[in-house]
Design goal:
Layout (H helix, E strand, L loop, with lengths): L6 H23 L4 H13 L1 H27 L1 H11 L7 H15 L3 H6 L2 E2 L6 E4 L5 E4 L4 E6 L4 E7 L1 E5 L8 E5 L2 E5 L3 E6 L3 E8 L2 E4 L7 E3 L3 E6 L2 E2 L3 E2 L2 H4 L6 E8 H9 L5 E4 L7 E7 L3 H11 L4 E4 L2 E4 L1
Parallel strand pairs: 5-7, 17-20
Antiparallel strand pairs: 1-4, 2-3, 3-6, 4-5, 6-9, 7-8, 8-11, 9-10, 10-13, 11-12, 13-14, 13-15, 16-18, 19-20
Helix pairs in contact: 1-3, 2-3, 3-5, 4-5, 8-9
C-alpha cells in the first residue's frame, strides 16, 4: 500500500487552496485589479501544484454557482440590498455574496430543508434507534433523515437521505412501505436495509421478503432473505446474493466493502464527519476493497486515499480527495 501523505505537504496544500479560493472570490466579485491579475498568473505559473489547487477550487466553485444564481434570482430585493450595503467599500457583487452565502450554508448545514421535513434525524452516533408508531424499529446511520405517515390506510416511511435498517412488526396491516427518491419497498413483516447513494438506492434483505418497485413503475422485483438489489434512475437491477456481514457492518462500527466505487465509499464515510467530502473528478469511479473503522472517519479517508494513490486534504467542514 502506498505511504500516507506527508503532514507537511498537507499544510502546504492547505495554504495553496486558501490562496486559490481568495483569487476565485476576487475574480468572481470583479475586484481583481490588473496588478492582482498579473500576480495571480505569476502564482499559477510558479508551480504545477498551484494550478492544480486553483483548478480544484474552481470545480468546487462551479458546483455552487448554479444554486447561487437561483438564490439571487428568487431573492431580488435581498440582492439589491446586498449590492447597496457592499458598495463602494466592497467590490464583491451580489452574485459573489450569494455564492459565498451558499457555500457557507452548504458546508454548515446542506440538508436543512430535509431536516425541517423529517420526523427523525440522526446525530453523530454510530447507530441511532427510532421506534416507529406501529412498534417497528428503525436503526439509523449518522446523517440520516426519515419522515412517516401511520394511520388506518398506510404505514409509510420516507427515507429522505442516508441509511436505515428496518425491523418491521410482523403480521401487521396495512402493509409497511419505505420510499426512497420515488423507489418503493413494500413488506409485510421482515428486516431489511435501505441505503441511499447520490445516484442509486440499495436494498438488502436480512430475513422475510420485500417487493421492490422503481420510481418508473417498471415490474417489481421480489427479494428473498440474503438478497440485494440496486435501483438506479428508477430502474431496479437484477437481484443478487448479498454479503450480509458486509452490508450490515455499519451497525457494528465498521464499513466493509468489496470492489465498491470510491465515490460511494466516501459518501458513506462522509456521514460520520461534520462537513462535506469532495472527490476529484476521475477518482470516484475507482473501486476499492477494505474494512474501515467508523469511529475514525478522517483516518479511514486517509487510508482510502492512500489505497488509490491519492491524498485526503482535511479543511474546516470539508475533506477533499485529490
Amino acid at each position: 500500500m502506498p505511504a500516507l501523505p506527508d503532514p507537511e505537504e498537507h499544510i502546504e496544500a492547505d495554504g495553496r487552496h486558501d490562496r486559490a479560493a481568495l483569487w476565485l472570490a476576487k475574480r468572481a466579485g470583479g475586484s481583481l485589479t490588473p496588478a492582482e491579475a498579473a500576480e495571480m498568473e505569476a502564482w499559477l505559473n510558479a508551480e504545477p501544484a498551484n494550478r492544480r489547487a486553483f483548478d480544484e477550487m474552481r470545480v468546487l466553485w462551479a458546483r455552487l454557482d448554479e444554486p447561487a444564481r437561483n438564490l439571487a434570482a428568487r431573492r431580488r430585493p435581498a440582492r439589491l440590498m446586498g449590492a447597496a450595503l457592499f458598495r463602494p467599500r466592497s467590490a464583491l457583487s451580489a452574485m459573489a455574496v450569494a455564492g459565498l452565502a451558499c457555500l457557507g450554508l452548504w458546508l454548515v448545514d446542506p440538508h436543512f430543508v430535509e431536516d425541517w421535513q423529517a420526523d427523525a434525524v440522526s446525530g453523530g452516533a454510530l447507530v441511532s434507534t427510532v421506534t416507529l408508531p406501529d412498534g417497528s424499529v428503525a436503526r439509523l446511520a449518522p446523517d440520516t433523515a426519515l419522515s412517516w405517515t401511520f394511520d388506518e390506510q398506510q404505514r409509510h416511511v420516507w427515507l429522505l437521505r442516508g441509511e436505515a435498517f428496518f425491523d418491521v412488526v410482523p403480521g401487521s396491516s396495512p402493509a409497511f412501505t419505505v420510499t426512497s427518491r420515488g423507489d418503493g419497498i413494500r413488506v409485510v413483516g421482515t428486516a431489511f436495509n435501505v441505503e441511499q447513494f447520490s445516484a442509486a438506492n440499495a436494498v438488502t434483505v436480512a430475513h422475510g421478503a420485500v417487493r421492490v418497485t422503481g420510481a418508473r413503475d417498471l415490474p417489481s422485483v421480489l427479494l428473498s432473505p440474503g438478497e440485494q438489489i440496486r435501483i438506479e434512475d428508477g430502474r431496479p437491477g437484477q437481484a443478487g446474493t448479498a454479503d450480509l456481514d458486509a452490508a450490515l457492518s455499519w451497525m457494528s462500527g465498521r464499513l466493509v466493502v468489496q470492489q465498491r466505487p470510491v465515490g460511494e465509499v466516501t459518501q458513506e464515510l462522509g456521514r460520520y464527519l461534520r462537513g462535506r467530502v469532495v472527490v476529484r473528478s476521475g477518482l470516484g469511479g475507482r473501486r476499492v476493497s477494505g474494512s474501515f473503522p467508523l469511529d475514525d472517519p478522517s483516518g479511514s479517508l486517509d487510508t482510502l486515499a492512500a489505497a488509490i494513490s491519492a491524498r485526503a486534504l482535511h479543511l474546516p467542514l470539508m475533506t477533499v480527495i485529490y
